[in-house]
Write a structure and sequence with these properties.
Elements (H helix, E strand, L loop, with lengths): L20 H23 L9 H6 L6 H18 L9 H11 L2 H13 L5 E8 L2 E8 L14 E7 L6 H4 L3 H8 L5 H11 L1
Antiparallel strand pairs: 1-2, 1-3
Helix pairs in contact: 1-3, 4-5, 5-7
Bound molecules: manganese (II) ion.
């Protein structure tokens, strides 16, 4: 049961000018593909070969570091492509939960951007559902809050990749500028669906 790269649900240039086409193409076709390939390599001939990605992630401490890094990379990027897009607005139950938890959408953005900007080196900022409540956290490298080794555990419904490969071509060293821009291309319908599923 080899893992495969999911197709991007939109064109590489769909998120322009906020995320440029070249970054999207390299990020999806090269970086994500490499996580998939290296995950398959790490699992070849082991019992992990017959486990789903979700099972691997939930028990990642039992596997070699290559499974943690590449399995996390595969899971995280699969979510990332899904929660990006244009033409949606935040509403409904998710909007209510964001307003009651963070005061407003701006309150959430501030919390996520601080989590992303202060994550030293490479990692992710997350909006998670934990015990039915929204919470913001961050993880190093390709870890995520579903992993048994995570400091803060929960179900991610929105993740922002703060590895330099996610923004360096357009934003260079200015990670905060990338973090401000990415809010223009969040697919709120996708995030709302993940919120409902996580509850
Ligand atoms: Mn990435």
């Amino acid at each position: 049961m080899a893992h495969t790269l999911p197709a991007l649900g939109y064109a590489f240039d769909a998120l322009e000018p906020h995320i440029d086409a070249q970054t999207m193409q390299i990020h999806h076709d090269k970086h994500h593909q490499a996580y998939v390939d290296n995950l398959n390599k790490a699992l070849a001939g082991t019992d992990g070969e017959n486990k789903s990605l979700e099972e691997l992630i939930a028990n990642v401490s039992k596997y070699p570091m290559a499974v943690r890094n590449n399995g996390g990379g595969h899971w995280n990027h699969t979510l990332f492509w899904e929660i990006l897009g244009t033409g949606t607005t935040l509403g409904g139950k998710l909007a209510d939960a964001i307003n009651s938890t963070f005061g407003s959408l701006d309150g959430l953005k501030e919390k996520m951007n601080t989590a992303g900007a202060t994550r030293f080196g490479s990692g992710w900022a997350w909006l998670i559902v934990k015990d039915g409540k929204l919470e913001v956290c961050s993880t190093p490298n390709q870890d995520n809050p579903l992993m048994d080794i995570a400091e803060v555990k929960g179900t991610p419904i929105l993740g922002i990749d703060v590895w330099e490969h996610a923004y360096y071509l357009k934003y260079q060293n200015k990670r905060p500028d990338y973090l401000n821009a990415i809010w223009n291309v969040i697919n709120w319908d996708a995030v709302a669906k993940k919120y409902e599923a996580a509850l």
